[in-house]
Amino acid sequence: MKDAFGAPQSLLVLGGTSEIALATARRLIALRTRRVWLAGRPSPALEAAAAELRGRGADVRTVDFDALDSASHEAALGKVFAEGDIDVVLMAFGVLGDQARDEEEPMAAVRVAQTNYTGAVSAGLVCAGALQAQGHGSLVVLSSVAGERARRADFIYGSSKAGLDAFAQGLGDALQGTGVHVMVVRPGFVRTRATAGLPEQPLATGPEEVAEAIVTGLRRRSETVWVPGSLRVVMAALRHVPRPLFRRLPV
């Protein structure tokens, strides 16, 4: 449950080494979040992230989680919820893929889709069910503006995010009145390890800016958050650009 100051006391991160997720966890810990679960594949990076957050005063545990192993999600995440209520679940796992390679290797493209969409559907439904059973909580889903309209440059990744976004919106509608809040976060280009070396896009942000938007959105119980906020207007315009012209735009 949230504390007397309205801050969540517990957080579950799916994708425990995500730079955006860890920036968000730091902000929430500073706001009195005291129990954090980091779910991800066992690795030195996951343990280092847990140790860093412990140094900030939180009780941090890790749990083995593989987005591609949907059959294991119910058992893995069930262990977390069995230890006590979770106020916020942050679904932050995903892969960018390599568009050129993935077009040549269909199974590589399938892996992008399975990670970003299929794995998210499985984990999202498991967490939504657990949150609904406890009667409260927020599910935060990291989507992307790439899902708003397919671009030649990254349509495989974009299509997976489009599916995720639609799923999360529908899930939020299905959970209306249950006490569970679903928030879809749509960042633009974010400067992270995953995007290092890629040409920077207009309106680029960093993990800290996305984290700030997430925390603000949680406080306001927003349903959709754009990062930066101006992207909402930009994408509203781009959505209606005729395809022949859209193909030629440097976006």
Element-level helix/strand string: EHEHEHEHHEHEHEHH
Helix content bin: 40-55%
CATH superfamily: NAD(P)-binding Rossmann-like Domain
Number of continuous helical runs: 9
Gyration radius from CA atoms, angstroms: 18 Å
**DSSP strand (E) fraction?**
15-25%
**CATH fold label:** Rossmann fold
Summed up, what is this model?
Helix content is 45%, strand content 16%. It is an alpha/beta fold.
Write the layout of secondary structure elements.
Layout: E1 10-14, H1 19-30, E2 35-40, H2 44-54, E3 59-64, H3 73-82, E4 88-91, H4 99-104, H5 106-134, E5 137-142, H6 155-174, E6 180-187, H7 207-220, E7 224-227, H8 231-238, H9 243-246
Parallel strand pairs: 1-2, 1-4, 2-3, 4-5, 5-6, 6-7
Helix pairs in contact: 1-7, 3-5, 5-6
Provide tags for this entry.
oxidoreductase, seven-stranded parallel sheet, Sc_DH/Rdtase_CS, oxidoreductase activity, 251 residues, 9 helices, Decaprenylphospho-beta-D-erythro-pentofuranosid-2-ulose 2-reductase, Rossmann fold, alpha/beta
